[in-house]
Each structure stands twice: as structure tokens, then as C-alpha cells.
Amino acid sequence: MTRFRPCIDLHTGQVKQIVGGTLSDTSFNLKTNHVSKFPASHFGEIYRKHRLKGAHVIMLGPGNELAAQEALEAWPGGFQVGGGITAENARQWIDRGAEKVIVTSYLFPVARFSLDNLKAVLKALNGNEEKLVVDLSCRRFGGRWMVAMNKWQTLTNMEVNCESIRLLEPYCSEFLIHAADNEGLQSGVDEELVIKLGQWCTIPVTYAGGARHLEDLDVVKRLSAGKVDLTIGSALDVFGGGSVKFDDCVRWNQQQDMQ
User: Fold this and answer.
1) Other CB atoms closer than 10 Å to residue 177's CB: what's the count?
2) Spatial separation of the C-alpha atoms in residues 167 and 184, rounded to whole Å
3) How far apart are CA 255 and CA 259, in angstroms?
4) So what's the pLDDT on residue 43?
5) DSSP letter, residue 191
6) Are 102 and 89 in contact (CB under 8 A)?
7) What are 56's strand-pairing partners?
8) Are the beta carbons of 122 and 170 closer than 8 angstroms?
9) Are strands 14-18 and 100-103 parallel, antiparallel or unpaired?
């Protein structure tokens, strides 16, 4: 059943909402929707209070490890952590309190998919796929969705389609998929992608990118037959947005539990 899944996006140690397509190694073209006055731990405490399991903490570049750790300490076992996850540090983040780790760029050395790297991360987690989330965040290119890495600036050789989903599912417990072209724009969800994810995925999958109304939860639920969860970021009042109230999202989840 579709759920609202919250997030904590970290950039230079602060909780931010960023237009995803503007991320790069420099801040020259960066477009930021919101910089929170609260630390990551504040949101960890809020999510813990409302039992919003499956929330993700994403470290967008260096300088975010301490803030991520603060979120984990606010809710041990409540967060999935991504951003710079490799076979060398995956176990460390689990030991620090992450429920699961999210891996992206490490799977694509020189922008080409490496099954060996995926297996290495899984081995570091003692072969427990329940601890691993694969991030297939993507951008549209030539009518296809291509996995994007390196702050969503580099397209890889992997298309998000039924074949790639089937290839990856045995190695992980969930997918996280940001529609990077929609991320932070509040321009509406990529409905076509949501439909396809509902058809392709047999394990839990969370979509993020473009949500702007509470009703988008109903849209994603309908389009995916309840198989895809939705993250709402920039539109949320707790992140400076004016169109979606966090409390309404919590209430929406509670209503699903009663159905």
C-alpha cells in the first residue's frame, strides 16, 4: 500500500531542499529552495514521533557525515542512509544505526554498471539484502529513463526498465528512484514513470521528484496500484513549502492503515 515517506537531504552539513538538476561539484549554478534552521536531528525526532519508517537521509556531497550521524542518533534503526556508500563503509553505517544503506554511484564506476560492485556491497552487509537499497535515480534521455550518478549529473549505461529491475531485485530489499529532472521543481510527479515502476517492481519502491500537493499521494497510489511510495520534499511546510502540510501527510498514512 502506498505510503508517504519523508526525507532529510543534506548539503554542506545543512538540511536543504535543492533543485536536483542543478547539483554539481561547485555551487555556482546551485538552486536551493530551502535551507532549514533546524539540524538533521530535529527531523529525526519528528519522524520518530510519528513512526514514519523508511525515511531516507541523503548526503549530497562531502561534509554531511556528522549531520547524518545526528539524524541516526535521533532515531536509531529508523533511517536509510545514502550518499557515498561503498563496500568499504556500508557496514559502518549500519553499525552507526542506519536501518539500511542506499547505494548509487558505487555501482557505476566510469558510469558503467558493475555487478561485482553490487555483490561487494552485499558481501559487506553479510549477504543480507534486507539491509540494502539500490538507488536508480534517473533522467530522461531519448525517451528513456537513464540512471544518473555523480549528483545526477552523469548518465550511466543503465536504463531503468523491466530488465534492469529484474536484474537488481535479488540483491536488494527496496529501490529508491528520484526523477532528477523533476526533483525540487514542484512541477508534478512523472506519472509515466510511476506507472511503469508499479508494473515492473516486485519489491518496495519509493519515488521522489515533483510532488506538490497532498493529492499526489492519491495519484501515485492509483497509478501504481498501491505499489509505489512517495517522498514529498520542497512542497512540505516543514521544508518551507506552502502547498503540503506535514501533519496532513501523517494523517494520510494513518488513513491507509485503517483501510
Assistant:
1) 25
2) 29
3) 7
4) 97
5) H
6) no
7) 7, 80
8) no
9) unpaired
d(CA 167, CA 41): 36
- pTM for the predicted model, two decimal places: 0.93
H or E stretch including 148? strand 144-149
CB–CB of 54/75 below 8 Å? Answer: no
Collect all residues with Cβ–Cβ distance below 8 Å to 170 and sequence separation of at least 6.
129
DSSP, residue by residue, 92-106: HHHHTT-SEEEE-GG
DSSP states along 172-203: -SEEEEEBTTTTTT-S---HHHHHHHHHH-SS
Owner of C-alpha cell 516543514: 238
Determine contact, residues 58/8, Cβ cutoff 8 Å: yes
DSSP string, 67-91: HHHHHHHHSTTSEEEESS--TTTHH
**Per-block average pLDDT, block size 10, for the chain (259 residues)?**
95 80 50 82 97 94 96 97 97 98 96 98 98 96 93 91 98 95 73 97 96 96 98 92 95 94
Place of cell 506507472: 195
How confident is the model over 34-84, as pLDDT tens digits?
Answer: 688 999 999 999 999 999 989 999 998 899 999 999 999 999 999 999 999
Closest CA to 133 of 61, 56, 194, 189: 56
Number of residues written out for the chain: 259
Listed in sequence order, the residues at least 6 apart from 258 whose beta carbon sits closer than 8 Å to its beta carbon are none
Angle at 119 between CA 66 and CA 170, to 5 degrees: 105
